[in-house]
């Protein structure tokens, strides 16, 4: 049986770096955000459906995230409509990924909204990346187009970091150096592999 690790964490907590280190350790990673970009990018299969639901939100380069964001942020019913389009398609890609890697000792599902959308029922272990609030804030505000108001709104939509840590099986501290994060992930991978050998 493959051990399925659900990797999650609030915005700016270093989840992308953690995913990259799992890959370096030879663990297949399903990136939910990358799947969404694939579905919504140039030639993406969801473009016609999204354009019908949100006219003017797509173009030759795929979904215009700025325009679509303005259409759905602050409008819960529109956000739900978009989720009903995107989430089933991502779930299919995730199932395909798990089927392809069913012989591997472990896989990682990188799911930003793991707790928010109830995905923890689908996995064996929850790994949460976490860093101090001041570092999270600094990372996020360095992103293009980010503002304090937008950051506050995103945090409001996410399960608080303290709650994620409480519900985690594994906590990966991403507040230090990249080497520190990498070392923690190597230990996680080694422990899971050792348990499978016994």
Which key terms come to mind for this protein?
2 domains, five-stranded parallel sheet, 198 residues, alpha/beta, 9 helices, Rossmann fold, two-stranded antiparallel sheet
Q: What is the CATH topology classification name of the largest domain? A: Rossmann fold
Q: Gyration radius, to the nearest Å?
A: 18 Å
| Side-by-side strand order of the widest sheet | 2-5-1-6-7
Number of beta strands: 7
Catalogue the unreliable spans. none
CATH architectural arrangement of the largest domain: 3-Layer(aba) Sandwich
Euclidean distance between termini CA atoms: 14 Å
Number of domains: 2
CATH homologous superfamily (4th level) name of the largest domain: P-loop containing nucleotide triphosphate hydrolases
Characterization of this structure:
The protein is α/β, with parallel strands linked by helices and 198 residues long. It is built from 9 helices and 7 strands, in the order βαβααββααββαααβα. The two termini are 14 Å apart. The strands form 2 sheets. Strands 2-5-1-6-7 form a 5-stranded parallel β-sheet, with helices on both faces. It has a two-stranded antiparallel ribbon with strand order 3-4. Strand 3 and strand 4 form a beta hairpin. The longest helix has 25 residues. The relative contact order is 0.22.
């Amino acid at each position: 049986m493959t051990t399925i690790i659900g990797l999650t964490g609030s915005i700016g907590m270093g989840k992308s770096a953690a995913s990259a280190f799992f890959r370096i350790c030879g663990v297949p990673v399903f990136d939910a955000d990358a799947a969404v970009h694939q579905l919504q990018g140039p030639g993406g299969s969801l473009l016609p459906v999204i354009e019908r639901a949100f006219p003017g939100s797509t173009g030759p380069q795929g979904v215009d995230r700025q325009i679509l964001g303005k259409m759905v942020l602050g409008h819960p019913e529109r956000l739900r409509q978009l989720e009903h389009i995107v989430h089933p398609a991502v779930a299919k890609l995730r199932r395909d990924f798990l089927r392809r890697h069913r012989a591997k000792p472990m896989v990682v599902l990188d799911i930003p909204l793991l707790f928010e959308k109830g995905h923890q029922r689908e996995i064996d272990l929850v790994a949460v990346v976490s860093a101090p609030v001041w570092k999270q804030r600094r990372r996020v505000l360095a992103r293009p187009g980010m503002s304090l108001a937008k950051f506050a709104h995103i945090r409001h939509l996410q399960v608080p970091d303290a709650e994620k840590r409480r519900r985690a099986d594994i906590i990966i501290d991403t507040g230090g150096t990249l080497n520190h994060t990498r070392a923690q992930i190597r230990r996680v991978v080694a422990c899971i592999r050792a348990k499978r050998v016994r």
